């Protein structure tokens, strides 16, 4: 891979997917600028995971940006709505969907990228083993990339942005295997939407179910401590 600007903006939530994406960006030869959004999410423990991952991967900059989406609400992650524990209904968008979250977050990544003269954005969206969120689909990513190159000085001047989504078509088992291949400790990452007061994963929310099944299908030990 030929890299003109060695910096890449990585959206780092602290979850398994974002950890693996950051590892893949580093493997590709990029210097990591990690962006973590503190949106006052229910599972704020993931912010600690993001900090550990950024440090472990040697990010040259890690920005934790406060953006209180509880002021908007509309999601079990940002409002007083119970996190579903019975599994996600097929074909339905669950209440853990945060309205326009990836659109908002990618916009912030794009602003940071232009400010840092970086042209590569990495995000851990997945359209195979996921909860059915509309902003994880390839159509959305293609549309946002086109928008990025229409809405920025760099894009208009022909210095285009690329959004990298290496996990898009991977199963959760594939992602768990990639973490192992990259030598990343999956225990650094956090997936649970509804942690217990003593910071254990609930084991029943959709994020926990997907994670546990992924490790099981991969034949790997899930280091998560479940309540």
Automatic annotation (TrEMBL):
Its catalytic activity? 7-carboxy-7-carbaguanine + NH4(+) + 2 ATP = 7-cyano-7-carbaguanine + 2 AMP + 2 diphosphate + 2 H(+)
Cofactor dependency: Zn(2+)
Please indicate if the UniProt record lists Ligase as a keyword.
yes
Provide the GO biological process annotations. tRNA queuosine(34) biosynthetic process
Does Cell membrane count among this protein's keywords? no
Instruction: Give the molecular function GO annotations.
Output: ATP binding; ligase activity, forming carbon-nitrogen bonds; zinc ion binding
Q: Which NCBIfam families match?
A: 7-cyano-7-deazaguanine synthase QueC
Cite the PANTHER family for this sequence.
7-CYANO-7-DEAZAGUANINE SYNTHASE (PTHR42914:SF1)
What family is it from? Belongs to the QueC family.
Q: Supply the name of the protein.
A: 7-cyano-7-deazaguanine synthase
Gene, per the UniProt record: queC
């Amino acid at each position: 891979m030929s890299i003109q600007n060695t910096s890449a903006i990585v959206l780092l939530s602290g979850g398994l997917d974002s950890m693996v994406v950051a590892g893949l960006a580093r493997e590709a030869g990029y210097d990591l600028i990690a962006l973590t959004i503190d949106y006052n999410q229910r599972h704020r423990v993931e912010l600690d995971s993001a900090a550990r991952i950024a440090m472990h991967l040697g990010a040259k900059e890690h920005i934790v940006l406060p953006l209180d989406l509880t002021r908007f609400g509309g999601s079990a992650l940002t409002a007083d709505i119970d996190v579903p524990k019975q599994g996600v209904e097929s074909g339905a968008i669950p209440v853990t969907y945060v309205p326009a979250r990836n659109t908002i977050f990618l916009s912030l990544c794009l602003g940071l990228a232009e400010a840092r003269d970086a042209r590569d954005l990495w995000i851990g969206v997945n359209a195979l083993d996921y909860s059915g969120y509309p902003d994880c689909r390839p159509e959305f990513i293609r549309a946002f990339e086109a928008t990025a190159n229409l809405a920025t000085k760099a894009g208009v001047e022909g210095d285009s942005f690329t959004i990298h989504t290496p996990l898009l078509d991977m199963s959760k088992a594939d992602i768990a295997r990639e973490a192992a291949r990259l030598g990343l400790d999956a225990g650094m990452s956090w997936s649970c939407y509804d942690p217990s007061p003593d910071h254990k994963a609930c084991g029943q929310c959709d994020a926990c179910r997907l994670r546990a099944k992924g490790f099981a299908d991969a034949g790997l030990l899930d280091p998560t401590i479940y309540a």
